[in-house]
Every structure is written in structure tokens, then in C-alpha cells.
């Protein structure tokens, strides 16, 4: 029989993330539309969910939206409702005005407010309860990202039968920055409720382990942390990097469709058939270095090293977190810069920057990647940056040049890109010119190596390696094997 205090569900695999893979939207006639939601997390998890028959717990993207669980495209969706106030305090406040800037090396300054912390605790509890109500006895629950760092501990305390994984999609900062957080110990305690804590880069896992040593003094050996329990024993927690990826074959398949290739040709034609199309695709976020990129491009036009007759920069900036002050300010800055640059350099027939503040369907993005000779990823800090991997996966023709910031997690893997420091404007200008002028042979050689990496390490390999570490953890717990070791 089911205990009323801790209802037990039927799913043996449960994913918990702040955002569901689909956003709720009400059509003008009052009917409901579900739209694919933004960001890398959803892109990465969707294929796994479709094949595993699990439940996905998350927020449907609007306030006060009370929707019953339903099935979407083969995935069981369990919506968690947030009030307008909770959205403001937990999502816009603590998640995106405290944790996001703090974890991205304080590019924008984080706010620290006690009320928003309280909301973060309350909402994390709601997600934990929803997960428990879905998870069968002994189920695996995989919690995602910085919005839900307290959930692993809440699950462990209430449901010690569960196998609990956590994956952090964004960077984990160095101790000097992390230590600013007034709730730094509570967050670590929350995360340490998991059996396996995954990070994007080796460095992120190292930063986390160091923070645990500094703030709790727990012994660590390699990727293993010995966490004391109430019963004076220790639990082994693994903190390790598992760089996330994409469904590379899926992207290539789309890129090979004749209608998408026709669309790519059309895009170039509509741009006036410039010799070179340069592309940037980002959420409109201050971590992405969009302003730095525009500055470099503008100087290249001003110096006469590039000309609008030959080169167009297409910048897709998808709307993001529009109620957060730093994002509003960023939008103003970027749009001012784009407007100025176009005013200075565009001609009647050639636009310097073709700027679009929209999200686009995946097919359209694939066509843009195919149409782009040069892809600019100039993030000042980024957990991974899946756009870089998507561009590579799409270029089955072996052409195209990726310019990639060394501050994106992807730079640890995509070494044959032209790597840049986006703060170094002169260096970025040289890199762009080099990309524009790169001979075909060099482009192909680099792209071939990049593609090998992305196809050998796709999202299926990522989730398989995380989940196998996690089931190793369960085996250790059950005293069956010592598979994980140090
Ligand atoms: C990043 C985060 C995700 C987030 C996405 C979109 O990829 O790691 O957790 O979902 O951005 O941001 P949003 O705030 O719109 O969910």
C-alpha cells in the first residue's frame, strides 16, 4: 500500500529539469499549443527520453499554469506549476540573477537576496515531491541543472531507495567566486544527495570537489567523495565530467534533406549572394559575447579588411529571460550596436548585420548552418555550447569554418576549430579574417577532424556514460561491485 506522506509512482526512470521539453502556449482561440522549448538541455535529453519511456518532470514555461500530466511525442510529461511570484523569485531571481551570473564567472554581477533563496528552497521541494510521486521503488531519478541543486538531497532524505543522478549543464565556478554565495554550504549539501554529480568539463568537476573540501572537509580521492551519513558510515559520491553532446546523426540526416538544402541556397540568395556568410546563433545572453563579436566585425569593416559587398554577418539572437534586468539592458546594448553598425556600413543592396530577435524551428537552423561559411561562437563563458557541435554535425559536405571561444566547454573537445579569446578583439579580428580566407583544403581537413569527434561522442554516448556511472553507483550501494573505484 502507498504511504500518503510519500506517494510512490510507477516510472523506473524519471528526469527532472526546470523546463519541460515543450512550452505551454495558448492560441488566440483558447486552445493549447505545445512548442519546443529553448536551450541546450532540452536538445540533449529529448532523444534519450523518447527511447527510455520515462517521465519528464518540469515547468511548462508560463506562470499559474495548472496542466495535468500528458504524453507528448512519446514522452510522459508531468508539469510542475509555478505562481507568478515564484517565477519572479525562484526563476528570474535566484536561478537567473544569482546562480547564472555567479556560475558564469560574474560576467554580470549576481544579486543575493534572502527572499529569492527562500523561494528557491520552496520550489525545489515541489519538484522533488513531483519526482517522488512519479518514481517507482528503486527508480533512477536524473536531476538537471542549476535551478534544481537542492533536489538530490530532498530525494535522498525522503526516498533512500532511489538512485539519484545530477548533471550541471553550466560551468561550476572556481572557489574564489563560488565562495561569494551566502548559501554555498546548503547548495553543496543539496548536490551531495546525488550518487553521481556530472559536469561538462574536467575543470568544473575539480572546482566542485575543491569547494566540497574547503567547505566541508570531506575526503576526496580522484572523482570519489566520501560523504559521512547519519549512521556514522560514508556514502561514496562520484563527481566527474561528462561533456554533453547532440544527436549528430539526426542533424546530418536533416541537412541531407533536399528541401533543407534548397532552403540554404535560398537564404544565401535572399542575402544577396555574398561571397561569405558569417553566422552567430545564440540565446540573447550576456555570456555569449555577442557584443564582442559585433565590435570585432565592425572594426573589420571600418579597417577595410572586410567589405559589406562580400561579407554578411547573420546574427540570430533568440529571446531569453526577458523579465530579468541584465537581459533587458543587454538587448538594448546589442540592438544599439547593430543599428549603429548597419547605419554606418550597410548599403541599399547589402546589409552588414542581418539581425533577428527570434527563435527558429530546428529545420531552419540547419539550413542556416548549411548556408554559413563561418560560424562564430564567441562565448565569454559557456558550459558546453551545443550550437558549435550542431554546426559541425550539419556540415556533411566537409566545408565551413568554426571559430570557437576557448571559454566554451566545447573547446576542450573541438580543438581543430579556430580557437579564440573573445576578450582579445584584435585576436578575434585576425581569427575571423583567417576563417574567411581559409583555403578549401584546410577547411576540409579541420572539419573532418571536428566531425569525427562529434559523431564519436554524440548525445547517446553521453547519456550512456552518465547512466552507466550511475548504475555502477547503485551496484556499489548494493554491495555488488566496486565498479567505480577512484
Ligand atoms: C541553458 C540552461 C538550461 C536552460 C536554457 C534556456 O541551456 O543550461 O537549463 O533551460 O539555457 O534558458 P531558460 O531560462 O529559458 O530555461
Automatic annotation (TrEMBL):
Biological processes per GO annotation: trehalose biosynthetic process
Full protein stretch here: 23 to 508 of 764
Coiled-coil stretches noted in the UniProt entry, renumbered to this chain: none
One term of GO molecular function: alpha,alpha-trehalose-phosphate synthase (UDP-forming) activity
Family per similarity comment: Belongs to the glycosyltransferase 20 family.
Organism per entry: Cryobacterium psychrophilum
Name of the molecule in the record: Bifunctional alpha,alpha-trehalose-phosphate synthase (UDP-forming)/trehalose-phosphatase
